[in-house]
Amino acid sequence: MPQFPERIALAPGLSISRLVCGLWQVADIEKDGRTIDPEQGADALQAYAKAGFDTFDMADHYGSAEIITGHLLRRYSAGSERPVAFTKWCPEPGPMTRDVVRRGVEERLVRLGVEKVDLLQFHWWTFEHPAWLDALHEMQAMKEEGLIGALGLTNFDAAHLGLALADGIEIASNQVSFSLIDRRAAGDLSALCQNKGVKLLAYGTLCGGFLSEKWLGKAEPETIPDWSRSKYKRFIDAAGGWAVYQGILAAAAEIARKHGVSVSNVASRWVLEHQAVAATIIGARLGENEHRDDNLKVFTFRLDEEDKTLLGNAFAASSPIPGDCGDEYRKPPFLTASGDLSHHLTAIPSVYTAAAVPGREDRMRVSSGSIWEPLAGYSRAVRVGERILVSGTTATHGSDRCVAPGDPGAQTTYILDKIAASIAALGGSMEDVVRTRIYLKDAAQWEPVSRAHGRFFSEILPANTLIQAGALIGDYEVEIEAEAVVTGK
Prior knowledge:
The protein has 489 residues and is α/β, with parallel strands linked by helices. It contains 15 helices and 19 strands. An eight-stranded parallel barrel has the order 3-4-5-6-7-8-9-10, surrounded by five helices.
């Protein structure tokens, strides 16, 4: 058995363990108000680091995890080989000015006690609010300044990772849920990452401990005491329920017996064998339930075709987790510990504000703030009774910048986010859309546009018209109109 976990280069100059210690459970331990002593916490982390598990993942909302890790990092002298610290910045939606972003990043630096964050990962709650691109461009500037070593994302789907890359952001990694239960990341996201050189960091690989021998053949629990397991029970329910989960667990257990390893090893091995995956993230409970020796066994075997067939047969009985990666935080069903976003946010503000049309009680409208709306005399969208009409929309960010120049698929994603925000401000949703009309600069670019459109509308299936309009200006490749009918709202 190897003495240390395998390593991989996540970015130039950034070597990490392929088993990353996740510190989300610090928040669970501290949720009742008690705080872990940072020096004692650092002792526990140092034991992991000495055993080769020297890469730690945390976030701004993981209780005192950043502070504990800062105490650990201070134990290493300048120039010495110290542990690697990942963290995340998960701001509430709102304007992402230079000052706002700098404060968010500098707080991570202060809490970790470092001059540069090894990997700073960005999470955004709703793509209908476009300020996420402002935040990433400011973080890119801080990376160039030397305050951020590598820039990552967390809970981004394939479409928005592609959009960020097309808009010039240098992304090293994307951290997403990926397990035998939640296999969404194995599709479009993995394909994009392999094509663009982005690495996946997989969390939830053990489903909060549900993917282990102790649950094999057990009855479905009536109550669950901790946040992490509550969250992953929702994933199990979404995948088809307890019986389906037991089928997958039984297949993993059979493979584990064959190779002389644990079920958890099999669950981790299955994820690690996906080429786009750099590492899986395993929970570290700071002195409790440490399984370092068992975790190392994940590097002692590989899954053969018989193993993959056995798992594939078990997967066939399950239902796909709804949506794409990260959707569990952005739309129902919210697969979070609470079943909603109440323990993360109080509200998600709209980027647009609806206004009444003077003298017309049946009419509302929204404006994007473009200088052209009053000059040319139009609204971003108008609601008349149950109908919402959205003007021709391009990938204009702010007042004058074209997003993802030359990339029609990425521009379509950005445009449809703007359309979704416009409709939401007028009391509707994308599920209410009955027609879209798409104008292309180049008819040969129909496929990436159609695929991006399909990510939003594959279940809604509105009527659609695709038109070549060779006169789109500058870097704009596509323009889209939409119509929705809102009933009972």
